[in-house]
């Protein structure tokens, strides 16, 4: 006699997460740092400046968003490091994994 097949166990949903993400317009310095780890010699504090706004300790990470059109020249502050120097801005994304209910 063939026993009834057991139902597969229901996956335990104890690790439901989602990615929060924010589109950013970032300065040339940030773009080089994000894309190629290039730290401009006149901006040694760049990683710390970014970390003040998007703390790695809180899970934030920034990635370049290639393929999206950049906004071009603007005087608006860089949304990644906070620099208020006018200049070209490039698209990037800040994201982190979030766990609802925690
Ligand atoms: Zn910047």
Give a brief rundown of this model:
The protein has two helices and four strands. Helices cover 17% and strands 27% of the residues. Residues 26-27, 29-30, 78, 80-81, 83 line the site of zinc ion (ZN).
Task: Give a description of the structure.
With about 100 residues, this protein is α+β, with helices and mostly antiparallel strands. About 15% of the residues lie in helices and about 25% in strands. The protein has two helices and four strands. Bound molecules: zinc ion.
What attributes characterize this protein structure?
2 helices, globular, about 100 residues, binds zinc ion, alpha+beta, four-stranded antiparallel sheet, 4 strands
Proportion of strand residues? 25-35%
- Estimated helix fraction: 10-25%
Number of helical stretches of at least 4 residues: 2
Total E-strand runs:
4
Arithmetic mean pLDDT: 85
Q: Per the principal axes of the C-alpha atoms, what is the gross shape?
A: globular
The rounded distance between the terminal residues' Cα atoms is: 48 Å
Low confidence ranges? none
Number of domains: 1
């Amino acid at each position: 006699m063939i026993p009834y097949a057991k139902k597969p166990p229901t996956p335990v949903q104890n690790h439901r997460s989602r990615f929060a993400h924010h589109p950013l317009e970032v300065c040339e310095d940030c773009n080089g740092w994000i894309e190629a780890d290039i730290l401009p010699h006149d901006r040694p504090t760049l990683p710390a400046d970014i970390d003040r706004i998007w703390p790695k300790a809180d899970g934030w990470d920034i990635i370049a968003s290639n393929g999206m059109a950049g906004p071009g020249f603007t005087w608006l502050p860089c949304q990644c490091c906070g620099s208020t120097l006018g200049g070209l801005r490039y698209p990037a994304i800040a994201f982190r994994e979030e766990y609802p209910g925690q």
